[in-house]
Amino acid sequence: MSNTESRRYDVAIVGGGIGGSILATILARHGVRVVLFEGSGHPRFAIGESTVPETTLGLRILADRYDVPEIGDMAAYGSVRRKITTSCGVKRNFSFVYHREGEAFRATECTQFPALSAPLGPDVHYFRQDIDAWAYQLALSYGADGFNHTFVTGVEFDSDGATLTAADRGEFRVRYVIDAGGMNSLLGKQLDLRVDPPTYQTRSRTIFSHFVGVEPFDRVAPPSSEHKMPQALSQGTLHHLFEGGWVWVIPFDNHPHSTNRLCSVGISLDLDRYPVHEDESPEEEFWAHVNRFPTFARQMRNAQAVRPVIRTGRVQFQSRKVVGDRWCLLPHASDFIDPLTSSGLSITAMGVNALAHRLIDAVRTDDFAPERFEYLETWVKNSFAYYDKLVGYSYTAFDNFELWNAWFRVWTIMTLYGSNGMMEAMFAFDRTKDPAVFAKLEEAPYRGVQAQDNPYCADLFGKACLAMQEYRDKEITVDQACERIYTALKQSGLVPSSWKQTDSTERSPATSLALVPMIRVLAWGKFRSPEFVRGQYLEHGLTEMLSRTGTFYREELQKGAAMAFHATRDLLLTGNRDWRKVGGGRRTLPAASETPNETASVADAR
After folding, report:
1. String of b and e for 516-551 (b: at least 16 CB within 10 Å)?
2. What pLDDT does 2 receive?
């Protein structure tokens, strides 16, 4: 192959993080000639460390739809620990504890929402430097070409594609460009795509680092007999809430099998309430906020940062367009709202799912018209607009615990229906093994994230947002806002009978998403829910959940038996033939442009 031919590709992806690498893996799996550029190199520090149910389900959908089972290994803590790295933490819940400056945490001022449990979960605290490096290596193993420590310095577009210039690597010719570069998006700068300043209502900044010595909050907080949360607060992502801000505590060491001593801690602040004071260093400001809240300070009393504390300016960024002629921005390169609700990875998974089959089809048909990718433009933007309202009004809710207690229940209902729409597609695939079933996720009412496309969910969300807006504008009181939110929940018909969303005294209104409680929810949906729920959500899953549970436990037992066998063998024997079962060449299909029938089942699943 000539040097010129070796520099020609169907798709270039600029940015080798988790989103760019997953997309590269899928494209390479289906015969697309893809090149992946990563400027910083691997491993490297990154945040965006907490998955949510829609991330977990989104990764499983990508694995099934595009026949890349390794992507499914990223979805749940157990498979991450067994097959990728032991440096991640487990996420069994979202816990929120409310603080008043100078006062100890009050045991009755906390809320909790469960994350997914087995067989679909638990969710994960990603130690991103390991996860991203593994995802990059996966892309290469499937046939993508990768250039680590290589910055793309410019892109020139024409009617047939683009020419990329890479530092110390020269020029590359491609038919399409994906920007997966995050906030430092190459195309965002070169094509002047950024909206400056962003028009989002959320205005926040962050101060963060990784630490050793962070105590599990359960050791310093009142006992569970007082706070009444069903799960340990340290077994998930812990959020310390206070007026004008919040703190994330994401432990990577909260599972007995974890080999990582680190914990990610970051403080997010309303930029208008807490402007930056340049005469105070990031470390000084970080610890000043920690020491405002005595119980949180006890949790951090032995903590020591292992890397410099980073302080940002406003974290929100926004782009005028997501797609253009021969290019597309992945969601995390297009816009960002705030770390609250851990929405970034879920929108990325949604975006990769919608983009991958369109690109495979575009390569097969040699049709890269922008109209083909218009769905991305619409629903990526809609998703960020939704999260802007969700997060922006969350900062408003931090004014008062009871206001937060009401507002967060709306998010839990949106999470239920957003996740279940994805489950319905997964269960359909379980029954049919036909990837075309995933096309349903790009039809009403399943488009976007968090059930935003469902008119009943959108009505509930709109009523709750209006109450929050009127409280923020001092038109109604806290009590009036809470009453309107609970009324909207009661009247929505969306609350499963086993959940206690309308009872303000039940601060963990959905106690668990484990198998038995989830079966109760599915049974309500199938037999007792309103007709507008029964026809579109919670319709299937009893048989599929039991089947997946059997598969989950069979794999767990097989893995345990295999580990015991290898340990015994190595104790008694000198040699082995493990080399026959590991490593190997690249996994890929023939070029998509040469074998249209090979990719038709995926590309047509639109």
Report:
1. ebbeebbbbbbeebeeebeebbbbbbeebbeebeee
2. 47
Separation of alpha carbons 124 and 250, rounded Å = 10
Task: Concatenate the DSSP letters of all residues of 252-267 into one string.
Answer: S--STT-----EEEEE
* Distances from the Cα of 562 to the Cα of 347, 465, 566, angstroms: 37, 52, 6
For 105-233, strand residue ranges (E) read: 110-114, 123-125, 145-148, 152-158, 161-166, 170-179, 204-212
- Quote the tokens at residue 88: 């991640």
Alpha helices by DSSP H, 340-477: 343-365, 374-397, 401-432, 455-472
Amino acid at 589: L
Q: What is the DSSP string of 23-86?
A: HHHHHHHTT--EEEEESS-SS------B--HHHHHHHHHHHHHTT-HHHHHTSSHHHHHHHT-S
Using CB atoms within 10 Å of the CB of residue 100, give its burial: 0 to 12 exposed, 13 to 18 middle, 19+ buried: middle
**Contact predicate 82/559, CB 8 Å:** yes
Low-confidence residues of the chain: pLDDT under 50:
1-2, 594-606
Q: Rounded to whole angstroms, how far apart are CA atoms 333 and 14?
A: 10
Predicted local distance difference test score (pLDDT) of residue 584? 60
Q: Is the Cβ–Cβ distance between 221 and 233 less than 8 Å? A: yes
DSSP result, 583-594: ------PSPTTT
CA–CA separation, 294 vs 305, rounded Å?
19
The strand pairing partners of 156, in sequence order, are: 163
Tokens of 131: 């996860």
Q: Is 309 helix (H, G, I), strand (E, B) or coil?
A: coil
Mapped onto helix, strand or coil, the DSSP state of residue 91 is strand
pTM: 0.94
> For residues 59 and 72, is the Cβ–Cβ distance under 8 A?
yes
**pLDDT (tens digit, 9 = 90+) per residue, 236-277?**
999 999 999 999 999 999 999 999 999 999 999 999 999 999
Say whether the peptide bond before residue 119 is cis (omega within 30 degrees of 0). Answer: yes
Cα distances (Å, whole numbers) of residue 383 to 43, 286, 493: 30, 31, 24
Say if residue 207 is exposed, middle or buried (CB neighbours under 10 Å; 0-12, 13-18, 19+).
buried
**Intra-chain end-to-end CA distance of the chain, in Å:** 35
Structure tokens given for 483: 């009453």
The span from the CA of 174 to the CA of 164, in Å, is 8
Tokens of 343: 């929405």
Paired with 235 in beta bridges are none
CA distances from 247 to 220, 241, 296, 409 (A): 16, 7, 10, 20
Residue with tokens 């615990």: 401
| CA gap 99, 238 in Å, rounded | 13
